[in-house]
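User: If you would, consider this record:
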Amino acid sequence: MKKMLTMLMSVFGLSFYTSCGQDHFENANVADFARYIEQSHVQLLDARTDSEYVAGHIAGAHNISVLDSDFIDRATAQFDKTRPIAVYCKTGRRSARAASMLTQAGYEVVNLEGGITAWLESGQPAQK
């Protein structure tokens, strides 16, 4: 009985811990993301590498690669915590990682589902 109680407490404690550590950022489809970044208070972050950014990016985006070891330091130095950040990458996976890190640092974040690939496939513009 004591072992069972200990096991149940461990399981409850683990599930409580993991639920408290979840990230709280939103994912947006291309249409919603496009409307969102039109708002003047929204900051736009391209989380891809420099070479990917130079090949084509969404107008107005600042580039900080989430793969850089100093990503969060550079982001917090460049972006205002009182304004939301819209983030994207190639397919949405790296930007979800960036969104997670930014959320943990105290930012409100929206991630582009499908990344710039979905953006371009839907006919949205990019600049070089």
Remarks:
- The chain has six helices and five strands.
